[in-house]
């Protein structure tokens, strides 16, 4: 499944990845902090989005974070 990390204040995509362990990624994201090359962030909330691509319904986990 696609997993996207988004800065909640600006809507900027920080990372897009594909993972088969979505529960593990979500659990790790809810830890103390997440470090990206652009700084340190804290989990705020997540959303499961569905979209259509080439006539197929796909889903992605969007994890919203705020800079700390």
Shape: globular
- Largest sheet report: 5 strands, mixed
* Mean pLDDT level: 95
Number of helices: 1
Order of helices and strands: EEHEEE
Please report which band the strand proportion falls in: under 5%, 5-15%, 15-25%, 25-35%, 35-45% or over 45%.
over 45%
Low-confidence regions: none
Strand order across the biggest sheet? 2-1-5-4-3
- Helical content stands at 10-25%
Total beta strands: 5
- Secondary-structure-based class equals mainly beta
Radius of gyration: 12 Å
Amino- and carboxy-terminal Cα gap: 27 Å
Write structural notes for this entry.
Helices cover 12% and strands 62% of the residues. By secondary structure, the chain is mainly β. The radius of gyration is 12 Å and the shape is globular. The termini are far apart.
Please write out the topology.
Elements: E1 2-7, E2 13-18, H1 22-29, E3 34-36, E4 39-53, E5 56-67
Can you summarize this structure?
This protein has 68 residues and is mainly beta. The protein is built from one helix and five strands, in the order E-E-H-E-E-E.
List key phrases describing it.
68 residues; mainly beta; globular
